[in-house]
Specification:
Keywords: Coiled coil, Kinase, Membrane, TPR repeat, Transferase, Transmembrane, Transmembrane helix, Two-component regulatory system. This protein is mainly α and about 675 residues long. Helix content is about 75%, strand content about 5%. It has a 5-stranded mixed β-sheet, covered by helices on one side. α16 (about 310-325) runs antiparallel to α17 (about 330-345).
C-alpha cells in the first residue's frame, strides 16, 4: 500500500519594516520585543508561548493607531499561526483588516487577505480561502508588488492542489513564476519548484516530479530561506516519496535517511521529522528490513499525536495496519484501519477515508464488497466534489472579475457621462456666447442704425434751419424787390394822386378817389399773393420729416414680406413740432416695426399719424400672433416705446391678446397754436 501524506512548505514570514516614531515608552518597546521573542521560542511549552503572545497583544493595542501598530499585530498573528491557535489567529487578522480598511492601507489589507486565506485553508474552507487569496492577488497586481503577488498565487496553487484541482494548481504555479522571472527570488523559486514536483507526482509524471524537486534543492539560498524551515529535508522527503510511488524503495530509503540527517531537524521541524521517520519505516517495511519495526512507526505516531497532526496520525495508523496485515496480526490490522477511518471521517479527510476503506477491504475479504461499494460511492462523490470545487474556484475568479469589470464599466460610464456633460456644456456655452455675441452685434447694428437715423434727423433739422434761413433771406429780398419795384412805387403814385385831390372840386375828387381806392385793392391783392407764395415754399421745406418716415417705410417693405399700410395726416404742422418729439417718434415707429418683424408673424402692419385736438396721435397695429399683456413681461422694445413716449410727455396704450394681434396707441400733447393755424387755414 502506498502512503498518501506529503509535506508542502509555505513560508509565513512577517514584514520587516523600519520602526516609526511613536509615543510608546522605551520600557513598553522593550517589553513588546521580549514578549514577541519569547512567544516565538520553540523550546517553551505552547501555553507559555500563548501567554507571552497575549501580553504582546495588550501592549500593541495600547499603541497609537498607525502603520507600526498594524505591523506589530501581524507579528502577533504569526505567533498564533505557528502555534496553530486558529481562533486567536483569525481574531487578530480581522482586527488588522478593520484597522487597515479605516486607514485605507492597501498594503496591510492585501496582507490581511492573505492571512485570512491561510486561516480558511487550515480549516478546510477552501472557497473562502480562495476568495481571500484572490482579493489579495488583485491588490498586489494593481500595485505591481511582484514578490507578494507570486507568494499569493502559490498559496492559491497549494489550495487548488489540496482540493484535487491539479491542473489548476499547475497553472497557478507557472503564473507565479512568470511574475518573478528574471528576479533574484530564490525563496519563491523553491516553493514553486517544490509544489510542481508534488503536482507531477500526483499526476503520475514521476520523471518531471523528480526534476522539479531537484530544481527546488538547487534553488535553496540560505540567505533568503531560514535554516529552521528545513527546506532541503522537505525536498529530500518528497523525492523519496516519488520513488515510493515508483516502487523503488531502496532509493526512497536513501532519500528519507538523508533527510533525517539534516541538522536540528527534530527541534526545528518535529512534524517533518515524523514524516521522514514514518516514510523511512514504510520503505524498510517494503524492503523487508524489519529490525527497527514497528518501533519506527510508533515513534513517528507518538510525535504526531503530541502535535495533534490528524492527517499524519491517519498515515501512521494506515502504515501500522498494513504492517500488521502482512504479519498476519489481523486484529491489530483491523484496529488501526478502523481508527484511521474514524479520524479521517471526523476530520473530513475523504482521501484518507478512501485509503482506509481500501485497506479494510484487503484485510477483511468477507466484507470486501461492502467496503468496495462504500469506496466507489465515496470516490465518485470525491471526484464530483473536486470537479465542483475546481468549477467553484473558476466561478469565484469569474464573479470577482465581473464585479471588478462592472466597477470598471461603471467608472467608464461615469467618466463618459462626465465627458458627454462637459462636451454638452461646452456646446451650450458656445451657443450661449454665439447668441450673446449675435445679440450684441444686433444691438450694435441697431445702435448704428439709430445713430444714422439720428444723424438723418439732425441733418434734417439743420437743413430745415438752413432752408428756413435761406428762404427768409430770399423772401426778404423778393418782398423788398416786389415791394420796392411794384407795390411801393404804385403806392407812392396813389399817395401823390390822393394828395392832389385837395386841389380839385368835390365831384371830380370823388371820381378820382374811387379810382385810387380800386388801385389800392389791387395793391393789397398783390401783397396777399406774395404772402401765399412765401407760405407755400416754406411748407415744402418743412415736409422733409415726412420724407424720412417714408424712407423708413420703404426699407421695411423692401426687407420684409409683411404688407405695410401707412397714412400721415397732411394737416400736421411739422414745423411746429419740436425736434425732440420728431426723433422720439421716429424711434418709436422703428422699434414697433422691429418688434413686429421679430415676434408677431403678422401679414399686415398699419401705421397712422393723426392730428387731433390738443394731441398728435400715432396708431400702430398688426394682425400677428399677439401676446398676453398681463403674463408676458415687457421686453426692451416695448419699454423703449413707453420710455420715449414719456420723454415727449405723452401716454401710450398697448392692447394685445393671443391670436388677436397687437395695437399701440400713442398720444403726444401739442401746442394749441397748431390747431389754431389749422383752423384758420
Amino acid at each position: 500500500m502506498k502512503k498518501y501524506y506529503l509535506i508542502l512548505l509555505i513560508f509565513f514570514i512577517g514584514c520587516n519594516r523600519q520602526n516609526e516614531e511613536t509615543h510608546v515608552s522605551r520600557r513598553s518597546k522593550d517589553s513588546l520585543n521580549l514578549y514577541l521573542s519569547l512567544a516565538n521560542e520553540y523550546k517553551l511549552p505552547v501555553e507559555i508561548k500563548k501567554k507571552y503572545t497575549r501580553k504582546a497583544f495588550e501592549v500593541i493595542m495600547s499603541q497609537p493607531e498607525d502603520s507600526l501598530k498594524r505591523v506589530n499585530l501581524f507579528k502577533v498573528a504569526n505567533r498564533y499561526f505557528n502555534m496553530r491557535d486558529w481562533n486567536e489567529y483569525n481574531k487578530t487578522v480581522k482586527i488588522i483588516l478593520e484597522k487597515a480598511q479605516k486607514a485605507n492601507d492597501s498594503v496591510s489589507m492585501s496582507k490581511a487577505y492573505t492571512y485570512l486565506g491561510d486561516y480558511y485553508s487550515s480549516q478546510a474552507i477552501s472557497d473562502s480561502a480562495f476568495l481571500y487569496y484572490f482579493k489579495a492577488e488583485k491588490i498586489y497586481t494593481d500595485s505591481n508588488s511582484f514578490y507578494n503577488l507570486a507568494k499569493t498565487r502559490l498559496s492559491k496553487a497549494l489550495l487548488q492542489f489540496n482540493e484535487g484541482d491539479f491542473y489548476g494548481s499547475e497553472k497557478a504555479v507557472f503564473n507565479a513564476l512568470r511574475v518573478i522571472k528574471g528576479k533574484n527570488n530564490n525563496d519563491i523559486l523553491y516553493e514553486a519548484y517544490n509544489l510542481l514536483g508534488v503536482i507531477y507526482n500526483e499526476l503520475g509524471d514521476y520523471e518531471k516530479a523528480i526534476e522539479f524537486h531537484n530544481k527546488a534543492i538547487a534553488s535553496i539560498d540560505n540567505n533568503l530561506i531560514p535554516a529552521e524551515f528545513q527546506s532541503k529535508a522537505t525536498s529530500l522527503n518528497n523525492i523519496g516519496f516519488v520513488y515510493q510511488n515508483l516502487n523503488d524503495y531502496k532509493k526512497a530509503n536513501f532519500y528519507f535517511k538523508k533527510g533525517l540527517e539534516e541538522k536540528n531537524l527534530y527541534n526545528q521541524k518535529p512534524e517533518l521529522y515524523a514524516i521522514l521517520l514514518d516514510n523511512l519505516a514504510y520503505s524498510r517495511f517494503k524492503l523487508n528490513q524489519n529490525e527497527e519495526l514497528p518501533d519506527l512507526f510508533y515513534k513517528a505516531l507518538k510525535i504526531r499525536d503530541s502535535l495533534q497532526l490528524t492527517a499524519g496520525i491517519t498515515a501512521s495508523k494506515m502504515h501500522l495496519s498494513e504492517y500488521y496485515a502482512v504479519k498476519k496480526d489481523t486484529a491489530k490490522a483491523i484496529h488501526y484501519s478502523n481508527q484511521a477511518l474514524l479520524v479521517s471521517k471526523r476530520t473530513k479527510n475523504f482521501r484518507n477515508v478512501l485509503v482506509a476503506l481500501k485497506q479494510l477491504s484487503l484485510i477483511q475479504p468477507e466484507k470486501a464488497s461492502k467496503y468496495s461499494e462504500d469506496y466507489i460511492h465515496l470516490n465518485d462523490s470525491l471526484q464530483k466534489a473536486e470537479r465542483k470545487m475546481g468549477d467553484k474556484f473558476t466561478r469565484i475568479e469569474y464573479e470577482t472579475n465581473e464585479i471588478k469589470n462592472e466597477n470598471s464599466s461603471l467608472e467608464i460610464q461615469n467618466r463618459t457621462l462626465v465627458y458627454v456633460f462637459s462636451i454638452f456644456s461646452l456646446i451650450v456655452l458656445f451657443f450661449y456666447i454665439y447668441k450673446t455675441q449675435q445679440a450684441k452685434n444686433r444691438e450694435l447694428l441697431f445702435k448704428q442704425q439709430q445713430q444714422v437715423a439720428n444723424e438723418d434727423i439732425y441733418n434734417l433739422m439743420i437743413s430745415q434751419q438752413n432752408a428756413i434761413e435761406t428762404m427768409r433771406i430770399r423772401e426778404k429780398k423778393k418782398v423788398a424787390q416786389d415791394l420796392h419795384d411794384g407795390v411801393l412805387g404804385r403806392m407812392f403814385g396813389v399817395r401823390i394822386s390822393l394828395d392832389s385831390l385837395d386841389k380839385l372840386d368835390e365831384e371830380t375828387a370823388n371820381d378820382k378817389r374811387k379810382k385810387y381806392l380800386l388801385e389800392l385793392k389791387e395793391i393789397e391783392q398783390d401783397i396777399r399773393e406774395i404772402s401765399h407764395d412765401l407760405n407755400k415754399e416754406k411748407s415744402g421745406l418743412m415736409n422733409n420729416f415726412v420724407a424720412i418716415l417714408e424712407k423708413l417705410f420703404q426699407n421695411q417693405t423692401n426687407t420684409f414680406n409683411t404688407k405695410l399700410i401707412y397714412n400721415i395726416d397732411s394737416n400736421i404742422k411739422w414745423d411746429l413740432v419740436s425736434n425732440v418729439v420728431k426723433i422720439n417718434l421716429y424711434r418709436i415707429i422703428q422699434e414697433a416695426l422691429q418688434n413686429v418683424n421679430k415676434y408677431a408673424q403678422a401679414k399686415t402692419i398699419n401705421v397712422e399719424f393723426k392730428n387731433e385736438i390738443n394731441y398728435l396721435a400715432v396708431l400702430i397695429s398688426d394682425d400677428g400672433v399677439g401676446f398676453n399683456t398681463h403674463k408676458t413681461k415687457k421686453g426692451i422694445g416695448l419699454q423703449n416705446i413707453v420710455y420715449r413716449t414719456a420723454e415727449c410727455n405723452g401716454n401710450v396704450e398697448i392692447h394685445s391678446a393671443k391670436g388677436e394681434g397687437t395695437s399701440i396707441v400713442i398720444k403726444i400733447p401739442i401746442d394749441q397754436k397748431i390747431n389754431k393755424i389749422h383752423n384758420e387755414s
